């Protein structure tokens, strides 16, 4: 399953619905634009009706659309928005497809979404759960860290002595371990530096007891990070790896993506996503099936594809 939650409204009131299989491709679904999506959400989300929330760690994607404030908030676990090479381009295309709207990433996944709605994040019984040490995959002498598809690659740099480590993880960003992360990295291979892209990072200055972190993905219960580092000053750089580059003195210094090529790549992925696939069982569009409960019809594809092309031209500066 890849569950998704859809929210229509905001702190003053909302309607919600979810689906077991709608998370895949949500970022490309949203390129249909506000008019298209709002029409479907008004049908699928029962405004003001009680909604039974699933546990935060069971939801792979979510979107909150507040038409009164013209604010779109979302998170996904897969797709161009969580790929280092295409993230900026994907956001540029999404913002162009939602003109006049604010578009925000929800770093806390469903935890952050519920907090935005004014719900108490402490309602989740796993909120204080400690990060699992065996969840980290760290390079050690003779056992190099090999990137695994679907496993975020994170750069951890340290001051005094200066070190750089590549870390993979399955569930919790390394920053969730608190100062225990230093012990977990003891004996890990020092890469010296890293000049490739990454999904996230942490910089630790143990002498000054300061830490900074960032991610292009999500971390449930991310609002508990500061409490997991008692006595430390913790800064969250959101998805801005420039903060990490500056703090690390260049030990983490990634090559900037080619945004022009990335924008073309995201546009092409979106057009493929909104291309009908005729089958004997349905009319052919898999987009937004989690919200509608059924497939969209092929006649709905051409207008959306035209909007995607127009958003591309806008994002590309033409």
Give a structural overview.
By secondary structure, the chain is an alpha/beta fold. It is built from nine helices and twelve strands. The protein has helices spanning 26-29, 34-44, 87-97, 109-116, 180-184, 241-247, 259-273, 289-292, 301-315; strands spanning 4-10, 13-19, 46-47, 61-66, 71-75, 102-105, 136-138, 153-159, 163-169, 200-205, 210-215, 233-236. A six-stranded mixed beta sheet has the order 3-2-1-4-5-6, sandwiched between helices. A hairpin with a 3-residue loop joins strand 8 and strand 9 (163-169). The relative contact order is 0.16. The model has no long low-confidence stretch (mean pLDDT 90).
Q: Level of helix content?
A: 25-40%
The ordered string of helix (H) and strand (E) elements is EEHHEEEHEHEEEHEEEHHHH
Tell me which oligomeric state these chains represent: single chain
Query: Order of strands side by side in the largest beta sheet?
Result: 3-2-1-4-5-6
Mean pLDDT: 90
Q: Helices and strands: which structural class?
A: alpha/beta
Q: Specify the biggest β-sheet.
A: 6 strands, mixed
Low-confidence stretches: none
Coarse morphology: globular
The Cα radius of gyration reads: 21 Å
Q: How many E-type strands?
A: 12
Q: Which band does the percent of strand residues land in?
A: 15-25%
